[in-house]
Amino acid sequence: MAMVRRRFLQIAAGALGSSFVYTASCSKDYPYRPVQLLVGFPDGGPVDIAGRTIGAWLADRLGQPFIVENRPGESGNIATRAVVQAAPDGYTLLVCGPVNVINTALSDGMDFDFVRDISAVAGLFRVPLVVEVNPTLPISTVPEFLTYARANPGRLKVAYAGTGTPQHLAIELFKAMAGVDLTLVPYAGSTPALEAILAGQADAMFDPMPSSIGLINSSKLRPLAVTTSLRSEALPQVPSMSDFVPGYEAGSWFGIGAPRETPSAIITRLNTEINAGLADPGLRTRVAGLGGMVMPGAPVAFTTFIAAETEKYRAVIREANIRLK
């Protein structure tokens, strides 16, 4: 019996040793095949743009394709769940943002927890929302928008990318602070919401700048304000909403997450290469052109940031009494 036990322990130790060598080897050689970047919203939206921006950089640096795959639905939860359930090998990553922490704060009884089940890899960049209207609307400034909204309660239709998204919470916060009644119209993402404004089916939108700036620069949308406390370098002529609604501030951010238990060596390598991209003048210029500010830092810093964002949105959701229908 003692001999059998010793033999069993030798086999187990050998298996563990082989597993360790395999994991270390895989981490060292990572990536040796294409990597998926899952986006929980349609193509052309701000999360999609963030994923394609960093995906191109990583592909060039690491020598393997970083393929953006759009899996819209459930306010980003379909893509997040797929990453949670994926093998923790670094080949399935999530392009994440505030919608992920909002879902955690908004929902009880989900089959996963973003903060617990996704390992923070790296922040990418932060962007303001831009408050914009269809150019056919007889409104050119925030004061005109406020005057019209107060004189016509509920008449202005504001499109947004789904219940519980940063856009949704930004509009609710604006309604409360500005004392206006707006009709909110949800869509499955920024792209269909923008299409609704362009078609005249909605009047206004609070949208992350990356997905709107091209339409603004081509005069297809009229910007009224940005939601950050300072003006954006990408639209320096557009005022801050806080100039008209004191204390108002909202925005969005993007980052990369991996399944829990992804080897630290893989996370460190991805973080290092992403930070190198965020320091690259060409990529920084592109991010600035989208109205963004880069978010460099170690994985632990991004983890801390996510925890703080979760608590911030939990407070907003509680105050506005927002519930999933």
Which structural traits does this protein have?
single chain, 325 residues, alpha/beta, D-Maltodextrin-Binding Protein, domain 2, 2 domains, six-stranded mixed sheet, five-stranded mixed sheet, 12 helices, 11 strands, globular
List the helices and strands and how they pair.
Layout: H1 2-29, E1 35-39, H2 46-62, E2 66-70, H3 77-85, E3 92-96, H4 98-106, H5 114-117, E4 118-127, E5 129-133, H6 142-151, E6 157-160, H7 166-178, E7 183-186, H8 190-198, E8 204-208, H9 209-217, E9 222-226, E10 252-259, H10 264-279, H11 281-289, E11 293-294, H12 299-320
Parallel strand pairs: 1-2, 1-3, 6-7, 6-8
Antiparallel strand pairs: 3-10, 4-10, 4-11, 5-8, 5-9
Helix pairs in contact: 2-10, 4-12, 7-12
What does this structure look like?
- This protein folds into two domains: 35-71 and 78-126 and 252-320, Bordetella uptake gene, domain 1 (D-Maltodextrin-Binding Protein, domain 2, 3-Layer(aba) Sandwich), CATH 3.40.190.150; 129-243, Periplasmic binding protein-like II (D-Maltodextrin-Binding Protein, domain 2, 3-Layer(aba) Sandwich).
- 48% of the residues lie in helices and 18% in strands.
- The chain is built from twelve helices and eleven strands.
- The strands form two sheets. Strands 2-1-3-10-4-11 form a six-stranded mixed beta sheet. A five-stranded mixed beta sheet has the order 7-6-8-5-9.
- Helix 2 crosses helix 10 (264-279) and helix 4 crosses helix 12 (299-320).
- The longest helix has 28 residues, at 2-29.
Alpha-beta content class: alpha/beta
CATH class category name of the largest domain: Alpha Beta
CATH architecture of the largest domain: 3-Layer(aba) Sandwich
Query: Mean pLDDT, as a whole number?
Result: 88
